[in-house]
Amino acid sequence: MPSELSNPHLSVDIVDTIEHLKGTHAGYRRAHARGVCYDAVFTPSGEAGVLTTAAHLQSDPVSATVRFSHTDTNPHLSDGDRAVRGFATKFHLADGTNTDLIAVNLDRFVASTPANFLGLLRAGEPDPTTGAPDLDTVKTYLGSHPEAGPGLAAARVIPTPVSYVTNTYWAIHAFLWRDADGNVRPVKYRWVPDSDVENVTAEEAATWTAEHLTAELAERLKGGPAGFTLKVQLGEEGDNTDDSTQVWPSDRTEITAGRLEITAEAADQEHWADQSFDPNLLTPGIEASDDPILAARSTIYAVSYDRRIHKR
Ligand code: HEM
Known about the structure:
With 312 residues, the chain is of the alpha+beta class. The chain has one domain (8-309): Catalase core domain (Catalase HpII,  Chain A, domain 1). The protein contains 8 helices and 12 strands. It has helices spanning 8-22, 114-123, 135-144, 149-156, 202-205, 212-221, 269-274, 292-309, and strands at 34-44, 62-70, 85-92, 98-104, 160-161, 169-170, 175-178, 184-193, 199-200, 226-234, 254-265, 286-288. The strands form 2 sheets. Strands 1, 2, 3, 4, 6, 7, 8, 10, 11 and 12 form a 10-stranded antiparallel β-sheet that branches. Strands 5-9 form a two-stranded antiparallel sheet. α1 runs parallel beside α2 (114-123) and α1 (8-22) packs across α8 (292-309). The protein is globular, with a radius of gyration of 19 Å. It starts with 7 loop residues before the first helix and ends with a helix. Bound molecules: protoporphyrin IX containing FE.
């Protein structure tokens, strides 16, 4: 029996269910379909070097590619539509390999296992007579999965940011850092913008053109790079590493691992749109935690990648 973590049938079921509920947009990601890619440079602070051997967290700057995205499956939505926003970073390491860090502007997820996520999707299936999800079915799901509540509530009211770079973004899962002596500790990542966190009202967002956030960032970058600081929370004994619906206490020690500067829109958008960002594309010194959602994301993303790359 395949475990739930590596179960390819479950991954296919999840992607099929997303398509069933949201429709298919041939050639696009089955989530975060709408996105724009940017050139960036990441400069480590040096603070992380004693805690992990990861090459990009030592002392030398590395180039990176960032993809900002809109979580929906529909690539034709407007930037002003309410949505969770994605911030995927591919660090280009000196040895020619890459490592990815994927974040969103929410600090927690809505399910603790892939099977629960599938259950949540199915609970939202529209009733054929009303065309809307059946509230009793949703209530029953939430009654038996209270851990979904905080993430769903935050997503439901998520504000629209003034800019892609006026948001805080969390990678949500715990990862493991391994130092030069083999010591391992759990960590969680958070990107903090140089700019203040700034949002617009729903009324203002409704007046935006579809590509408003891309145009806004193009204009902003004329004045110089847009920066984020990579903050890393250090987990302590007893902090859970296997449940993305839970956050760690806010008083955990946090270090500054480095600074990312977004410099320009990537010249070849099509090339970057075709690439895959994978939260399990790690580099020596960083390992996946035991979070089952994290484990499943690689196979889920591979199913989506295979479909979009074959223009399905
Ligand atoms: C069971 C849980 C999840 C499912 C089913 C899921 C599904 C997907 C799919 C199908 C894609 C498109 C992949 C591709 O074609 O390359 C995607 C992309 C993405 N997901 Fe998830 N996801 C899950 C969990 C998460 C979590 C916990 C985060 C939070 C960090 C996240 C953030 C993103 C982002 C930012 C992208 C866009 C990456 C890019 O720009 O290429 N996802 N997701």
